[in-house]
Each structure stands twice: as C-alpha cells, then as structure tokens.
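## Example record

The block below lists the input lines for one assembly entry, exactly as stored, with component labels intact.
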Amino acid sequence: MAHEHKLAIFRGAVKFKSNVSKIWGVFAFLSIVTIVEVALGIIRPEFLIDTRFLALKLLNWIFIILTIVKAYYITWDFMHMRDETSGLRRAIIWTSIFLIAYLVVLVLIEGDYIFEVYKSGFIKFDF
Amino acid sequence: MEATVVKTGTEGKTWGGGNQPLKASYGKMMMWFFIVSDALTFSGFLASYGFSRFKFVDAWPIADEVFTHFPFLHGVEAPMYYVAFMTFILIFSSVTMVLAVDAGHKMKQNKVILYLFLTIIGGLIFLGSQAWEWATFIKGDYGAIETKGGQIIQFLDKEGERVAIRDFAAINDGDRIPQTRENGLWFAEDTEYLPTVSFEQVKAGFLANDNLLVRLQHKDEHGHHIILSRQESIAKVVNDGQLVVEGANLRHNEYGHPLFANFFFFITGFHGFHVATGVLINIIIFFNVILGTYERRNNYEMVEKVGLYWHFVDLVWVFVFTFFYLV
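Predicted structure tokens for the full assembly:
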C-alpha cells in the first residue's frame, strides 16, 4: 500500500503533480477519445467507409485502435498497472493478449469462410 | 531433541520463503487473475458475436439503424447519443472509484465515503439506462415482416423514409379473435407471440397503398440495404411474407437477423449482471468504510481490490460499446 505512483503519461510527455490531477487528466483524455468515437460514429465519413484495409473498413480500424488506447489508459492509470512490477504486468497482459488475439483471428477467419460457402453455393475450394 | 523441525536454517535467504516477487498482496493478485479469466469469458462472447457477424456480413444490422432513441425525445432520430451518455456515466463512476482508492491510500475516511457513494450512484444510473435501452429495443418502432425463409423485410415510402406497419395495415380487415378456452379446444393455448396487427392486415394495407416499397435485410456492395421496385415488392410480400414482427426478442427481431438480438441480450445482459454485482459489492464496502472497518485495519486495500473489479466492468463496456454500437 501507499507505494509511489508514477505520474507521467504519454511516455513521459505529460507529467502530473499529484495522483489526483493525473486521474483527472486521464479522464479528460478518455472523454476526448470517446467524443471522437461518437462523432465519427454519427458522421460516418464516406471515404473511411469505402476504403478497406485487411478486409476491414478504415473506420472500423480507427474504432478498434481508439478502443485499445482507451483500454490501455483504464488499465494503466485507473487499475494502477503502471505501478505494478513488470512480472505481474506481463503475466496478466501478455497472457490475455495472446489468448484473445488467437481466438479472435481463428474465429473471424472461420466466420468469413462460412459466409463465402453460403454465397458461392456451398463449395469454396474444389480440390 | 524435538520431533518437528521448526526452523529450516534458511531464514533470510531467497529460498527461505515469504518473498513477494510481484510485490502484490494475495487478495490483489487473485483479483487480477479473476479479471484475466473474466476477460477471457467476455472475449469468447465478443468473438462469437464477430463470428456470426462475419458469417452474415451482408445482412447484419448496424447499430445506427437500431438504437436511434433518446428518452423524452419521441420521433427524433438520435443514434449513438444515449449510449454515449451511458459510456460517460460509466467512465465517470470509474473516476470516482479511483479517487476513492486514492483517498484510501491517504487514509481519508470521509473522502472515501463520498467517492464510493458517487460510484454507486453512477452504477445505478447506468443500470437504469440499460433497462431503458432494453425496453426500447424489445418494444421496437416501425415493425417488419418476416419471410418464410426467416428474412426481415421493412417498409419505406417513395422518399425512402421508414413507414410503421401499424400506420398502413388495414385494421378493419379481418380482425383477429384471440383463442380462449371457452370457444376452442381446452388444451390449445393462444400463440405466445402476438403483434398488434396480423400479417393479413399488413398485406392488405400494403397492396392498397401504392406508395410503399420493400427494403431487404441484405445489403449491396456499398453497405446500403437493397430497396425493391413496387412490382418486386408486391411479389416479395405476397409470395414470401409470413409473420409480423414488432420489436425484438430471442426468436424474432424486426431490425434484422435474430442473432443480433440474441447476442445483444446475452452480452449486454452479462455485462449488466457484472455492473449489478459491482454495485452490490461497492455497497457492502461502502458500509464497511462507514463503520470504520478499514480505519481499524489501518489500510484501505479492500477498496482498491473492489476498485479493480469496478474498473474492469468499465473496461468491458468500452469493448462492448465499440463492437455493438460503433463498428
């Protein structure tokens, strides 16, 4: 308990004087990101929808990246992951990221495969 | 000579035990490991949602068409605003929680009480909002027709505006009389799913009104729903139509694929369940703080552990928000 808090965020670019002001700073940052997400979700700019990267709309990539940024700051500053030892941090973060990424990639490829099977009359590869 | 060895002779050495290489207490570490397992559960749910979405990617409803309501603003198209409000409520209650943890570090009992109280209020507002969101989704707005193949078709006027089925259905045409025990077979129950208008009424109203077109569940390559011409629309309704769908439940969904409704109820329901237990645990801890339990124990780590759970609930919402409402 009562151990020291690391007060710098954005890789040391922003430094806060106290833990409380850091909390408000992170809250402001999370709010800005959320407002950007909601604004993009309402406007849905045409060129972001029509451009695709790795089978996903550019807009959706932006949403996913912003979500991961938010998740990072919630975990690092609200859940104090920044102040934990690197051992605890890696045990939790890398385990989760590996398992989740693995599952998501496999399952989405499978879903896309079934979509193609339905669309092209039940045969996708004719060996 | 004693029977048991009480000293190993390794006290103070690295292998003598009692080390804490992760510098975290038992309770905190177990809360972290629980969070990891719970995160994997939620990822499993969200991944299966992604699976179904990719499977029916050309016919999946997007949230902008589904969640367009805001309380007290009837008839105003307000996509996203309400769920953005819910997101802010949850992030803000996360902020008050982390402020409570900070006050606990400084042993300021009154501040912990205040911030925990605000956190509980935030959680309750979120739960109420979610109940409203569910109720609106279940009630539906325009209504639709389900075809024999399980597809959803919706109705538009010539300008491309949605038209509610109860506005054009021929209500006086062949009214439906509910099945009761007195006038029918005593063991036969009336059907559970009973929309306000019947399919025959909608069909008659549709055929009488030349201004109406049909919009399909499927989308073209630009992501817009396919709209049929008047001739095709009539053929679609007459040949394929089967059932009136109003709102969403676990079997039918007027907004599109029933799986969308199933996943929505399941995942936001499971998340709401987490919020509800989080509020409950917060309340227990809140009373403990008031009673001075942690003041006597001389540390507020329990607030921190509960805080971890609460932030996790917020973290999950960030992902649910993205994958249900944004993407």
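The mean pLDDT of chain A is 86. The beta strands of chain A are 8-9, 14-15, 52-53, 56-57.
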